[in-house]
C-alpha cells in the first residue's frame, strides 16, 4: 500500500496519479468546546493534507470528532487552534468553494426540487441569466435521476429523493471541495447503493475533491482513494491512513472480487476494534 512521488505528484501502487496540488490543508487543528464541566478538547494537533481531485473517506468511533472536523472545514464551526486552508488560503467562514451534504438534506419543504437547487445557484451565479441558472439546476437534477421531479415539492419526495436533491444542490454550486457528513446514513441499503453510484459518477466527471464521513467500512473502501482513520477522543487526531489502490471506474462486483478487498477491510476493522 505504498505510494511514490514523481515530480511531486502522488502515484499509488496501481499507477493512479494525483496532481501535486494540495487542495485542503489542516494544520495543527484544535477544537475545544466549553461545557458546564469545563473545556472539552475534541481535536488536538490534527494534521491532514488532501490532494486536488482526491476522494477521501473518514472513519472513527462515534463521538471522536468527525463532524466537528468537517464542520470546521465547512467554516460552520469556529477553529480553536491551528488552521485550515483551501488551495493555500486560510478559511475564515463558509464559502461557495466548499459544498456540504448532510445526513438530512434540510430542503425547504414548500419549495420544488428545482427551486431548492436554485437557492444555491442564484447565490453563487448572480450574474448568470435566469435561463442559464435554470439550466444548471436542471442539469444536476437530471444527473441524480430527478428529471421527472423538477416541480415536485420537497415535502412530497421520499428520503432518498430528497437526498438526491441535496446532492444536486451541492454539485450545482460548483464547489472546489465537497464535504459529506454521512449522507447515506438514513437510507436503506438499496437506495444507499444507488446514491453511492450517482455520487461517484458525478464526482468522476466533475473531478472535485471530496471528503466524506461514513460509519460503513465497505462504503469507505468502495468510494475512496484514501480512508482516513481518526483516533478516539478526547484530543482526537489522524490515527492511520489507508490507500485504496482499486482502479476507477469501480463496480461493486470488481471491488468485492479484488484480492486486496479483505485486506483493506481487515485493516480498517482492526483499527476500529483497538
Ligand atoms: N457544541 C458542542 N458543545 C459541546 N460539546 C460538543 C458540541 N458538539 C459536539 N460536542 C462533543 O464533541 C464530541 C465530538 O462530536 P462530533 O459530533 O464531532 O463526533 P462524531 O465523530 O461526528 O460523532 P458521530 O459519529 O456520532 O456522528 C462529542 O463528545 C460531542 O458530544
Number of domains: 2
CATH superfamily of the largest domain: P-loop containing nucleotide triphosphate hydrolases
Looking at the chains present, what oligomeric state does this protein adopt? single chain
By CATH, the topology of the largest domain is Rossmann fold
Tell the overall outline. Answer: globular
Total beta strands: 13
Query: How far do the termini sit from each other?
Result: 21 Å
Averaged pLDDT, please?
92
> What is the second-level CATH architecture of the largest domain?
3-Layer(aba) Sandwich
Topology order in helix (H) and strand (E) letters: EEEEEEHEEEHHHEHEHEEHH
Q: What structural class should be given to the helix and strand makeup?
A: alpha/beta
List the bound ligands: adenosine-5'-triphosphate
- What kind of sheet is the major sheet? 6 strands, mixed
Could you please describe the fold and organization of this structure?
This protein folds into 2 domains: 3-97 and 175-273, P-loop containing nucleotide triphosphate hydrolases (Rossmann fold), CATH 3.40.50; 103-173, no CATH class. The chain contains 8 helices and 13 strands. A 6-stranded mixed sheet has the order 9-10-11-6-12-13, sandwiched between helices. Helix 5 (189-206) links the parallel strand 10 and strand 11 (209-213). It is globular. It is an alpha/beta fold. Helices cover 34% and strands 28% of the residues. Helix 2 runs parallel beside helix 4 (159-172). It has helices spanning 66-74, 113-124, 130-143, 159-172, 189-206, 217-223, 252-257, 261-273, and strands spanning 3-6, 9-12, 17-18, 22-35, 38-51, 55-59, 81-86, 89-90, 98-101, 177-181, 209-213, 226-230, 238-243. The structure holds adenosine-5'-triphosphate. Adenosine-5'-triphosphate (ATP) binds at residues 33, 35, 40, 42, 60, 62-68, 233.
